[in-house]
Predict the structure.
Amino acid sequence: MINRFSINLYLLLLLLSASKIVTAANNTITGTLEHYATIYSIGVEWDITGDDNHNASVQVKYRKTGTDSWKDAQALFRVDFQGYNMLAGSIFFLEPATEYEISLVLSDPDGGNQSQVITQSTRNIPTLPNGNQYHVIVGTGGGDGTVANPFKGIIAAQSQAQAGDIFLLHAGDYGTAGEVYFNKAGSFNNPIVWKSAGDGRVVLNKARIAADYIWLDGLNFEYDESNSDFGLLTTSPGPVGAILTNNYFFNCNKCIYLNQGGSNWYIVNNTIVGNNDPNTGSNFTGEGIELNRTSGHTVAYNTISKVADGISYPRSNVDIFNNEIFDTTDDGIELDYGHNNVRVWRNRISNAFNNGISFQPMDGAPWYVLYNQVAAPGEDALKLRTRIDRVLLAHNTLVAWSGPISSSSILLRNMKSRNNLWISVQPRYIWENGGDSSLNWKTDLDYDGFDWGNYTYAFKWGQRLTHLSDFQSLTAEELNGIVIDRNSCFEEFNIPGPPPLAIPFQHISLTSSCNAIDAAEYLPNINDDYFGTAPDMGALERGNLLPNYGNDIIYKNSFEYTFE
């Protein structure tokens, strides 16, 4: 027989069980720890269960293997988004081909504390292999690759190719026979190299990378009006380890297009001039470098113009830096649908018809957007429309013609924003989000500088806020934010008008009297090289060497380009 005592005991046990379930949901239980690298960065993803109250953290330190001194890095971000439940993040500005030890210390007030030390090596910068060297001329077969009897055509050369071989392509048009397939694979650290011999222009039309570890250097991909849709394509299942350096793409629509996938590419110092007219308004078709949701790439020092989006669609573990992107008919850099550890730093974006950097939507996190200069896109400096999560947005100079973010700025509440300069050339409020003033556990906005001119209010954040102090009072965010004056803060600030009026190339660097000097927050591993008593706000630290963007292209006007 069940008596009252038995019932009460049963209910007590149920309550205790429920209490344990609640406690366990806040306690952190670690799962798979994944780590990986590019040439200059290391990424970490540490899966967890529990931590429903999102108060777990992981402090990160790193050092070269075999050295004594640990350096601080940025803490991992707590990511609970799009099916990911983890702590994840990146370490920056590392040395190539170097092994690092990484210390991860997980803390959770609810339980689950632990420490791990892992090792991860960065990748090497590609160097030419020590294989055989052959000569190639335009032709349709024959030859042995010697100077006296070069291979006649790429097909003939490929029939003899082995990993590590270098093929010197002599001047001529190799595309007259149709689309060129580079389909003989090299191997890791021993690619097959197809390189200009240096005696004149080596011309191809449409081409495909159809095998792993292919290196194309100093080639010209030029298209006439009858064949200007695609430039360099891929084949399924996606080639690994392709290297594209010092190539010139002209009059293409999707110029470098990983249409059938690919991973771990090195795309550096190429010049891309598409076939979009920046004077005719918005055109959403055609990409400079279309990564097509692929991972592991280094995309750097490219000069990209006259395309819709300069660089688009990385997936994860991708570094995009020091690119010169201008005269685009859509967005400068389009990160849409990216997943974890997407890193974008020190790019210069000028005269984007629509937006500077697009975030809509994110499919994973975190992303890092650091030290970029965006000058006067037609719409927004940052495009925020839907599904935004953890981003470190730091040290960017974000100049818009009329309001840096004209809609959906409430999505900034998922970001960590630090040390940015937000400027509207025409008097206009800085951020607009409509009627929602709420914040959440992810919101972390501070140490930014703002200039909205003489507009009657500064922010739309659930209501119209006249001044920065009103925003601070409403949200308790940006408590160390400041108001700056672009008329006295910059050595050069030449923004003559909105697109399609061209924006001159310039470094929007700070004057010694600007109140943004020494006004930023110290961020370990991000701004360690600062001068003075604290870092400066914006993309350019006064006293540091000015960065180089892109390669040696010099812009004259919308349709005239000169190369040095």
User: Anything to note?
Assistant: The longest strand covers residues 28-37.
